[in-house]
Each structure stands twice: as structure tokens, then as C-alpha cells.
Design goal:
The structure holds two protein chains of two kinds. Chain A is of the alpha/beta class. Chain A folds into two domains: 175 residues, P-loop containing nucleotide triphosphate hydrolases (Rossmann fold, 3-Layer(aba) Sandwich), CATH 3.40.50; 65 residues, no CATH class. Chain A contains seven helices and ten strands. Chain A has a six-stranded mixed beta sheet, sandwiched between helices. In chain A, strands 2-1-4-5 form a four-stranded antiparallel beta sheet, with helices on one face. In chain A, a hairpin with a 2-residue loop joins strand 4 and strand 5. In chain A, helix 2 runs antiparallel to helix 3 and helix 2 packs parallel to helix 4. Chain A is globular, with a radius of gyration of 19 Å. Chain B is mainly α. Chain B folds into two domains: 34 residues; 220 residues, MetI-like (MetI-like fold, Orthogonal Bundle), CATH 1.10.3720.10. Chain B is 81% helix and 0% strand. Chain B has eleven helices and no strands. Chains A and B meet through strand 6 and helix 2 of A and helix 1, helix 8 and helix 9 of B.
Amino acid sequence: MTGLLEVRNLSKRFATRAGREPSPWIIRDLSFSVADGEFLTIVGPSGGGKTTLLNMIAQIDTASGGEIIFQSKQAPLNDKKSLKPGLNCQIGYVTQEDNLLPWRTCLENVLFPLMAQGRLTEETRERAQSLIRAVGLAGWETHYPHELSGGMRKRTSLIRTLVYDPPVILMDEPFGALDAQTRAQLQEDLLRLWNLGRKTIVFVTHDITEAIALADRTLVLTRQPSKVAGEHVITIPRPRDMRDVVTQPEFIDIYRRIRAQVQ
Amino acid sequence: MTTAEDTNALCVESDGSRWRNVAVRVGQIGLGLLLLWLWKWGANSAGETYIADPFKVWSRLIEVARSGALAHHAYVTLRISALGFAIGCAAGVILPFALRRLPRLTDAVEPYIMASVGVPKYALIPLFILWFGINDAPKLWLIGLLVFYPVFISVFAGIRSVDGRLLGMVRLLGASETRISAEVIWHTMLPFFFSGLKIALPRAVSAAIVAEFLVGAEGIGFYIENSRQQMDITGAFVGIVVAIALVLVTNAILVWIDKRLSAWRPTDRHMEL
């Protein structure tokens, strides 16, 4: 099967400083593929190179070996200069920290990518407004990031990526630092928005429950140097209720199998 | 939702903090009166050939203000300070922005710029007069140079302090290098720029006054020096008071602009300069 995005034998080690031991491989011969419209989650132990993996896919970081193929075209990976962050706005990235621009209000942050890409029209502006309403940020448009709560900032950074509609969205533990309540709410928001557009999502987390609850398919990574330890197709029917998903009979079974693979 | 409520709660001052503000205000006025008394005491004991009487300075100030001479001298000094300030600022902002794109040139040029910080600019006045004559030109060179360094150094530091993750994110969202400069770099360096300006502004006015001691027949500097030569100590003191007022007013304008431009920053009173 050839997917929308393919990762083949990807490897990464950071540059060795003079006079030191060669730095260890963080990722070694990692291969997987993502189909168009698929929600893929990746679980692995923390410090296992998950963020590094996403950085390479997003073209923020170089790879030490292997290739990434997006829409049947090979992405430049070898040196820092030839990297194209976001592959011309084809790959969206919701990072662990919200990385909002602190001098822009909530709405201005959401409009930023549209403005930067020269796509700010009545129509896209309306889209931004409807996304703001969809995640419950209505009334907070003119607030600066430091005036918003952690959950609101997360929502803002999420819809900042959704607003310009990239075909692939990478998410790096976006809900990691939130309380359980806000987290469940945001997971539901995310699934609802995903259902509307069916984007391709690669979602990295260390939380097995979250990985199962959101995904069509879950990859388990090994400890460093990471490669794929196992692959699980999640058959729990959609639409799913985040608070209810753990009570599904399939859930326990998949959870046990994944649990056994995550060391 | 709690964040906004908290902010509101913080904005509404409690009775305690209102009394604290009143106490601070009373203290400030008291200190001002004490300084005025010290001045008066100095004038009485040293004699009016050295220190002018504050009340005579006040009435002279009114007199000069009514005659229009004050406005004229102040205008001359302000004009030359503002021109020199603008030139120094423009160079101090444009140069680091240009150097940002040229890291190798930056490495080559930086030690020379940093070494030239140490040149005492006032020592160059005789040369400036020799090279540029006795019009505005030597004054503008002096003021421009004195403003350039603090602005250049602070903007340079501001540009270097930019958050790499924010840069990466903005690139990923499709921003061009020009937009990155105008958006991320600009906003990151603004607070640094303003702290540089706060150093540069009084320097500009001082430099204008010193230049006027030496060159020209108008301006606050000329007024002070001219009064001293005529043994009119009250006049000299009037000039100094006006010079202080000029710096305070321009500085207040600067602080106001800074507040407007950085409304997004979380306010932390203790961090304000």
C-alpha cells in the first residue's frame, strides 16, 4: 500500500561534538506509511524520539538517513538549507508548546497563517470565525495569549493550523499539559473537527488511552533507538464518546496488547 | 474563563493599595519640597554668584516664557536633538536588521563596532567642527553618534534574543523572511529598542546643549553659556531647568509610545524601567 505520507528507513542521530563519543542513534530504520484521511497515533516511551520524528516530517530538522515521501515526491532531508518547513504549507504542525505569537490576539493568531500565505479573504476570515466558535473561543478573540488559560491557548494553536487546511497535520502531545477535564473536551473537539474534514493526522502521545481513543491505527515505538514495535488497527466504531470509549469491550483488549509492547 | 476574572480582580484596587498610593504620592511631594529647600539653603549660604535663588529662577522663567525667547531657544534645541535622534535611531535600527541576513559580515564587522563604542564622542567635537563647519552638521554628527550606539547595541541584542521555536513555527505557517522580520523580529526587539531609546534620549538633548555651548547663537545651551558669561546666574539656572523639563517631557512621550506599542505584554510593574 502506498500512502499519502511514507517514512522509509528513517534514521537520526545528532551531530557529534569534537572529542566526544559518537552520539547514539535516536531513531533507527523507522518505516511506516499513512493513508489519506487516516488518523494515526504513535505511542512510545518518553525520550524516545517522537518529537524528533515529527520535526523531520515537518521539515524542521534534518535526517541522518532514510527518506520521507509525501504525495509520491521525496522530501529534501539532508541539509538544513534545503529543508522546506511545512513543505509549502502542506504539512501542519501543532507543537507541544502552543508557540502562539504573544503580541497577537487570539483571532489575529488564527488569521496569521492566512495572512502569511496571502489567503486572507472574506471567506477564509469567516472560516476562522466559525472555527473559533466551534472550539468555544467566541468572546475571547481580542484577548492576548497571556490572558488565556492553557486550554484556550491550545485550542487557539489547534485552529491556527486547521484554518489553512493543510492535507497532513502533525500533533505532538498537544494535550499533554492539560487537566483531565479540559483534555477530554479538547479530544472531543478534535474528533468532531476531524470528522468534518477528514484530514490526515499523525498524533504523537505517551498516553495509551488517548492513542486508542482517537485513532484509526496506532503505532507503538520502541525505546531508543526507536523503530516500530507493533501496529494496531483500532476497530472501535465512530463516532466515539471520549468518556465512554474505555468501557468498550475492544478497548481493554487493545490496551493490553499495546501495554505489553510499550516498555 | 477564570483568567479574565482574575485579571479583573487585579485591576480593581483594594482600599489598602489605594492608601499605599496616597502615601507614596505624599512622600514624593515631601521629597520635592525637601530638594527645593536644599536649593534655597544652598543659594542663601553660597551666595547668588554661585547658586541662583529658586524663586528668582521661577519669576525669570515666567518672564522669559512671556517674551517668547524661551519658546525660541527650546525650539532650536529640540529641533536639532530630534533631527540627530532620528538619524541615530534610523541607523541604529536599520543596520542590525540588515546584518541579520548577513551572519558572516556581522562576525567581521562586530568587533570594530564594539571597539568604536569606546571612542569618547565629545572628544570628536573639534574635529567635527573642522570637518563639517559650524552649522547644524557637526551637532547632528555628535547627537547621531551618541544616539546610534545605545540603539544599535540594544536592537542587536533584541534581534539575537528571538525565540527559535517561534521562528520555526512561523516559517512552517508559510511566512516569508520579510514577514518574519516585520513580525517576529520586530516585536521581539521592540522592548530592547525602547530601553535603548530611554538611554539615548537624554543623551541627545545633552549633546545638543553641549554642542550649543560651542557653536551657534541660539538654543538652550547657548542661553546657559551666554548667561554665565554675563554673570547672570539666574539665567543659567533657568536654562538648566528648561533643559531638565525638555528631557522629562520627551521621555514621557517615549514611555507613552512604548505603552501603546507593547499593550500585549503582561504588565509587571516591577519590571518597568
